[in-house]
Amino acid sequence: MSVDTTFLRKVILFKHLTDSQIERVIPILEVKRFAKGQMIFKEGDTANGVYILNRGKVKVFKLSPDGKEQVLHFITEGEIFGEVAAFLGEAFPANAESLSESIIYLLPRLPFLKLIQEDPQMALNIMALFAYRLKEFVRLIDSLALKNIAQRLSTYLLFIAEKKGNVVALDVKKSEIASFLGTIPETLSRVFSKMAKARLLKVRGNKIEILDPSGLEKIALGIFDLSQGDRTNLQL
Amino acid sequence: MSVDTTFLRKVILFKHLTDSQIERVIPILEVKRFAKGQMIFKEGDTANGVYILNRGKVKVFKLSPDGKEQVLHFITEGEIFGEVAAFLGEAFPANAESLSESIIYLLPRLPFLKLIQEDPQMALNIMALFAYRLKEFVRLIDSLALKNIAQRLSTYLLFIAEKKGNVVALDVKKSEIASFLGTIPETLSRVFSKMAKARLLKVRGNKIEILDPSGLEKIALGIFDLSQGDRTNLQL
DNA sequence: CGCATGATTGACAGCAGTCAAGATGTGTGG
DNA sequence: CCACACATCTTGACTGCTGTCAATCATGCG
Hints:
Two copies of one chain form a homodimer.
Chain A: H1 5-10, H2 19-25, E1 30-34, E2 39-41, E3 49-55, E4 58-63, E5 69-75, E6 80-81, H3 83-88, E7 95-98, E8 102-108, H4 109-118, H5 120-146, H6 149-164, E9 167-169, H7 174-180, H8 185-197, E10 201-204, E11 207-210, H9 213-220
Chain B binds a DNA duplex (30 and 30 nucleotides) through α8.
């Protein structure tokens, strides 16, 4: 199993490196494969390095003692994860699980720290990544603490539609999305069907067709809600 | 209004600086005073720099359109805030308000960035601070998404008691704590009185005397709950 | 075709929020 | 030092959103 060099150049962490610098990183990377559903690391494990997702999908999530789960991030190809615990040399504060067949490169902790210390641009990249994660978390906290499920879903769909257009193919199971939104599949399903009844969108399997983005936005902002069966109130 | 040099040496951000480096930072700092209840910055304001709290108390919080609020952090003397937005040069993602008479030093954005770029130790300090904030947020998300109010309060009290001992004087109003725990004063008050009835603690004004730390821990972990009036079940 | 996994729908329960009233505490001025 | 006013906290009655449990329905794969 060899490392995909072309891929590495697209990873934000390495984007600024010269060819010769990349060449020096490659032999350090460990290539790992994970099956769908396999745990990559568990909360409490000591962080052995930074994980770089080459192929597949990963979720990072917290578990409560009674088995409820909250997704913190979905990781897509080219993204990295586990970087905070690797930086601190502490235990992972959350779990990571492969959502599909995945290929992952592990950059061990010590070379990772060495890169940060020797390359100021690398340090800035990490800071930017941390800052991005912090912004994600503020959004998530805002969502969990201050929004109902319909508002959370509207916000989420509009966020996706922003880059993928008004017909969205969900790239994870609805039950995973429920867990990211801080709810359960049953509740998510009910909200989807209320939105469909209100002609805000259409659901066909994992494809969501957004019919009325501005209506969704009004729900996201709390200007309207889905309490009534129709949305004649939206005419006001 | 002059800058307190002794204080500055204790700020994590500057701890490693030599005397002459500190001397160069001092003239750059703007000293600001805020009255109790005064806004320091609002969500959406462009970040003009990093805020260093010299004297007083500050809360950083999100607001929903209908006025509900979620506290993200309480800032205590010597801590800094607004560093992420200042680093990125973006709008603040949250609000900051002074909870008492406060004295705050503002380190403007450009000198802040200059310090990061020229002093690798400063860059590492910022990374460590970001990492700390990320860990705080993971705890908050875990709390909001996976715990009921009694669990959140138990966790919070045990966290405080860890450093201050078993008789805790709350340093912010109960209503602020409610907002940090993602609830409202009425609910917090009810949980306190259930805990008192279960002889886990005593409440006298803003002083909380923890009588049974291990009982609180069991609640925090979800092993027991407060649904029954007494806690004979704890004997099991 | 049949089973497994995931999604949907229904009936019901409970935690926490809302609204309103009352109690407690704190600070200020006489 | 007391009394009043205001802020904060507490308690009560009620509502409603969301979760639980269970059954049914789709979907896809061997």
